[in-house]
Amino acid sequence: MKQLIIIAAIALAVTAPARSQALVDPNKVAPEYREAAEKRRAEQIHQRECALKADLEKVLPRDRTAYLTHCLDTIAAKQ
């Protein structure tokens, strides 16, 4: 039993932490898809900004989706 616990602890220590989706790099995309990649990158940046605001304001998990939706709508209205 102790061996199983030790092996599990080592496995957890060695595995890489889960990361969020990486930002799209328009320069690494085929030229015909570059415009779409630039739009996606801008969208990802806006999502990260809103998520950061939610974290700073300590929005509860149950209210987070509504907060993010409102934040993204506000950014879209400004443009």
Can you describe this structure?
The structure is a single chain. The chain has 79 residues and is mostly helical. It is built from three helices and no strands. The longest helix is centred in the middle third of the chain and has 23 residues.
Write a brief caption for the model.
This protein is mostly helical. Helices cover 68% and strands 0% of the residues.
Question: Which helices and strands, and how do they pair?
Answer:
Elements: H1 2-14, H2 34-56, H3 61-78
Helix pairs in contact: 2-3
Structural class of the helices, strands and pairings? mainly alpha
The proportion of strand residues reads: under 5%
Radius of gyration: 19 Å
Q: How does the major sheet shape up?
A: none
Q: pLDDT average, as an integer?
A: 86
> Helix tally?
3
Q: What ranges have pLDDT less than 50 throughout 5 or more consecutive residues?
A: none
Overall shape = flat
Number of strands: 0
What pattern of helices and strands is seen along the backbone? HHH
Which range best describes the helical content: under 10%, 10-25%, 25-40%, 40-55%, 55-70% or over 70%? Answer: 55-70%
Q: Alpha-carbon distance between the termini?
A: 60 Å
